[in-house]
Amino acid sequence: NAGVTQTPKFQVLKTGQSMTLQCAQDMNHEYMSWYRQDPGMGLRLIHYSVGAGITDQGEVPNGYNVSRSTTEDFPLRLLSAAPSQTSVYFCASSRGQTSGNTDTQYFGPGTRLTVL
Amino acid sequence: DQQVKQNSPSLSVQEGRISILNCDYTNSMFDYFLWYKKYPAEGPTFLISISSIKDKNEDGRFTVFLNKSAKHLSLHIVPSQPGDSAVYFCAASAQRANSKLTFGKGITLSVRP
Predict the structure, then answer these.
(1) Which phi and psi (to 5°) does residue B111 adopt?
(2) Which of B101, B30, B98 lies closest to B67 in space, CA to CA?
(3) Contact flag A106-B49 (C-beta cutoff 8 Å)
């Protein structure tokens, strides 16, 4: 199993550009989430999904869109990048409630995004 | 308003001694708590967790203690090893399937040989 994979590892954008951060997992996990980590801050939840076709907002959703058309993939879209979106982005997945127990989240290696 | 607080940004301990990392929370709805370890340029990796129905959970060198009345938890690492040097995040969830984790800011642990 590759686990949770994220592409690209690094990206530099200009203000106003759009891009999509890719996230995929091969563990057949129901739940997937996107977090951002900024210096001196913990990870903050952007959006999450409890299954294909279902998404919801987290703590800091503004400026980001998500969709979940398959169990495996959960892309994060920046429609018009701003310098405030310079951050490290982590995707995570977990088995979810069908496991019957509280489950842990598995994180990808991250995407380091710089917006100029 | 920070719901999960890790007030000490860093901790340095001697190899072989105990490391104690503290975490406080304010949200009474949190019922599941996790510790994650993070190396530079990598994603966080799960270390240990505890449900609010317990006050202690142990896994090898790692033990997490939960004091619900004080809204406080701590991670004990005994004995500490140089490979334990990393950033440790405390996280909490108000849902059993923890799809929504709230993280603290993290503590940088340095274990001196």
Answers:
(1) -110, 115
(2) B30
(3) no
Q: In angstroms, what CA-CA distances link B14 with A3, B106, B109? A: 34, 20, 11
Cα(A72)–Cα(B20) distance, integer angstroms: 38
pLDDT one-digit tens code per residue, B23-37? 999 999 998 899 999
User: Which chain A residue has the Cα nearest residue B108?
Assistant: A40
Give residue A100's region: left, alpha or beta (phi > 0; psi -120 to 50).
left
Q: Report the distance separating Cα A40 and Cα B106, nearest Å.
A: 8
Q: Which residues contact B84 (CB under 8 A, 6 or more apart)?
A: B19, B37, B77, B109, B111
Query: Which residues of chain A does B91 touch, with a Cβ-Cβ cutoff of 8 Å?
Result: 42-43
CA B105/CA A100 separation, integer angstroms: 30
Q: CB of A71 within 8 Å of any CB in chain B?
A: no
* Coil, strand or helix at A85: helix
- Digit-coded pLDDT (tens) for A65-80: 999 999 999 999 999 9
Q: Which residues pair with B77 in a beta bridge?
A: B19, B62
| Residuewise pLDDT in 10s, chain A (116 residues) | 779 999 999 999 999 999 999 999 999 999 999 999 998 888 999 999 989 999 999 999 999 999 999 999 999 999 999 999 999 999 999 887 655 455 688 999 999 999 99
Q: Which residues of B touch A94 (CB under 8 A)?
A: 97-99
Residue pointed to by tokens 């398959």? A70
| B36, amino acid identity | Y
